[in-house]
Specification:
This protein is mostly beta strands. It has a single domain, classed as Jelly Rolls (Sandwich), CATH 2.60.120. It is 7% helix and 47% strand.
Length: 220
């Protein structure tokens, strides 16, 4: 006996049916999704500048590929609370990079995920003067990690294709994509980044909803 997952067309049809039937009632699985609540925090070694503390239930991080060769390589990133530029509510998350080599992000604290499940992730994004690294820059980028263990980097799977990264200057735009968790998924987190690009990006009103199941068919 072996198992296989229904082909993509079948899953797409199932997803469409689920969204029409339950789109309004699916709960948002992210804590502090609008970045309204911020808490004091002392800067750690791999954290960017955090003048306003950090958004509760999210953790910041910062790096540059070049640091692997030169520990003194400069990194200029900031995570801040913006109460002027926001999509809704009283605040948004602002990430600003000074160099096109910077990778600055916030990651939601991991939570339980269901295997063989279809999730929908959406977030509002705004960019200003984002210049991507000419070699391998991305710009404003969001993605998802799943894993079978609590260890954040153990057997991690970057699930599905994330929303296309964006550079330049653009008004509030909604990133949206579908996440299909693998059979061993037990934990998940969402990453919001300004990746190997200078400039500013704002994130607000993030949503993660479980919207359907992937049907596993048993064959003999």
């Amino acid at each position: 006996m072996r198992s296989f997952i229904l082909p993509a067309l079948g899953m797409a049809l199932m997803l469409g049916t689920t969204l029409c039937a339950g789109e309004e009632s699916a709960p948002n699985l992210l804590a502090n999704p609008g970045f309204e609540v911020w808490v004091p925090a002392e800067r750690r070694g791999n954290w960017p500048l955090i003048p306003d503390g950090i958004p509760e239930d999210w953790l910041p991080g910062q790096s540059a590929y070049e640091q692997g060769r030169d520990h003194n390589f400069p990194v200029q990133g900031t995570v801040a609370r913006d109460t002027v530029v926001k999509h809704s509510g009283g605040a948004s998350l602002l990430i600003e990079n000074g160099l096109t080599t910077d990778i600055t992000d916030v990651i939601c604290q991991q939570f339980a995920a269901e295997p063989n499940t279809i999730y929908r992730f959406r977030v509002w994004v705004r960019g200003e003067n984002i210049v991507a690294n000419p070699n391998d820059g991305c710009g404003a980028l969001a993605w998802c990690h799943t894993r079978p263990a609590e260890d954040m980097w153990k057997n991690v799977t970057t699930t599905n294709k994330p929303p296309d990264p964006r550079a330049g200057t653009f008004d509030w735009t909604r990133f949206s994509w579908r996440i299909e968790t693998p059979p061993d998924a037990r934990f998940m987190d969402i990453v919001l980044q300004l990746r190997r690009a200078s400039g500013k990006v704002w994130y607000d009103d993030a949503e993660l909803e479980a919207v359907g199941r992937i049907t596993v068919v048993e064959t003999y």
